[in-house]
Specification:
Length: 99
């Protein structure tokens, strides 16, 4: 299981620890991932995701999972986020929700 946010696609970043003497050693910046279950009104079910706390705060600010997905640009979403966005759009347009 990769360290990647399901909604935004945020991954591990790499950089340096820089000491007082300006010596640089490699390090990793890990995203703060949490396993959460969000409810989707359009799909009529709950969706279990591993998302970053930053994405979770944005979802709450937008008013839930569906408004977040519909307002987010495709380039800002990860693979699972795009998949969910397609399902929500299809459900809202009157298509069947079976996948």
């Amino acid at each position: 299981m990769p360290r990647e946010c399901d909604l935004t696609g945020t991954r591990v970043s790499y950089g340096h620890n820089v000491s007082h003497s300006n010596r640089k050693t490699s390090r990793r910046f890990l995203p703060n991932l949490q396993k959460v279950t969000l409810s989707s009104d359009a799909l009529g079910r709950r969706v279990s995701l591993r998302i970053s706390t930053r994405a979770l705060r944005t979802v709450q600010r937008k008013g839930g999972l569906d408004p977040y997905l519909l307002s987010a640009a495709d380039k800002d979403l990860g693979i699972e986020g795009l998949r969910l966005k397609r399902r929500v759009r299809k459900a809202l347009s009157g298509g069947s929700t079976s996948a």
